[in-house]
Amino acid sequence: MASSKVCTEWNTTNTTPSTRPRSRPFLPSGFGALSTRTGKKPIIAAVNGVCFGGGCEMIINTDLVLASSRATFALPEVKRGVVALAGALPRLVRTVGKQRAMEMALTGRVLGAEEARAWGLVNKVVDDSESESRSEGQGDQKGKGVVAEAIRWAQEIASNSPDSVIVSRVGVRMGWEGMGVQEGTEQLRREWWERMEGGENMIEGVRAFVEKRRPRWVDSKL
Hints:
Blueprint lengths: L3 H12 L28 E4 L2 E3 L1 H7 L3 E5 L3 E3 L13 H9 L1 H10 L3 E2 H7 L4 E3 L2 H6 L9 H15 L3 H15 L4 H16 L3 H11 L12
């Protein structure tokens, strides 16, 4: 998850001397182009190994997180005299609750994959040890199991109506970003449902159900 490019971005941002505060330290989509990204497509993070700092801020904003059993997570900024300013802190509260968010943010301690799953930061932990033992001698197989599982989840999502996926995701994120139930439902109905209703994919979904066959979706026009 934390590529060399992302690590370089973090190092440059936090070690380059500056005589004035930055008005915008990151791109509009945030650190690594993910930490504050919105967009329409769901993002699945497949984490294998160390996911600290900026990498952790990135996965907090993704829609689904799968982790290998060796993955570790942390916001160690307090140990380096900096702060996680790429969007993670307010979102972390809504994901794991105030007490646990405070624990991560104020201590900088490391969470293992299973603990991160128990806290709600990770959807599923994938044990890569079996797939690696079967593939011994076939090159670097580390993390292949979690990537394969992420692809399987992506295929399952992609088998659904693209319109329904987009609008459902927007509705969930409205609540996650702090919008009230009534306000969020009304905005979802007004801005999205009215564009989706009567569209090709809605008609196809109902027709396929009646005809007892798999639907044949078309690309979303939302």
